[in-house]
Amino acid sequence: MTSEDIGPGTARPGGRTARVRSAVLRAAGDALAEHGLAGLDLADVARRAEVGKTTVYRRWGTPATLVADLLADMAEQSLPRTESGTLLGDLRANARLVARTLADPRQGALFKAVIAAATCDTRTAAALHRFYDIRVSEWEPCARQAVERGELPADTDTREVIRAVSAPLYYRLLTTGEPLDEATADRAAEAAAAAARAGAFRTARP
Fold this sequence. Notes:
This is TetR family transcriptional regulator. The chain is mainly alpha-helical and 206 residues long. The protein folds into 2 domains: 15-62, Homeodomain-like (Arc Repressor Mutant, subunit A, Orthogonal Bundle); 78-197, Tetracycline Repressor, domain 2. It contains 9 helices and no strands. Helix 1 (15-35) crosses helix 4, helix 5 (87-103) runs antiparallel to helix 7 and helix 5 packs parallel to helix 8. The relative contact order is 0.12.
């Protein structure tokens, strides 16, 4: 996933190519947070990253491809899930991680830009969907283990439980601008846990 000459996922990690990719993706994230997808220029990214324009154009080719690689890298770098032994403890850890990420000035602006771009660019939308699919898959075992412990109904849609945790946090980011603090995160986790226990996410509704 670090070759300048071939597509992501096909070269061994490490070395100069990894350093170049890291610098370019960091620069792309900064530029995206500042200007959005419409203002993402590969030559500007190369200048920010202090690498040759030819390298950036050959490796990524288009802003949409660069955004897709950026999202893939963000998914790879995200912290692993927490296992507390209880559904609420696990969901609270997930909610606090999401809230901290979105409350960060750079990361919050970056997610706003990517979400906005995804509404009008199919490739960005596909990359964003892959990012969230990876993150939901990382945390889904929290809900699955809760089912196995008897905390949730056996036919619970465990992926929907995880989605329900972050949904109100993204809503706040995109609509109200109100603070994303631990209290807000804990409230989202508690609401998702209560709904799951009540059977709101059962696949076979009574």
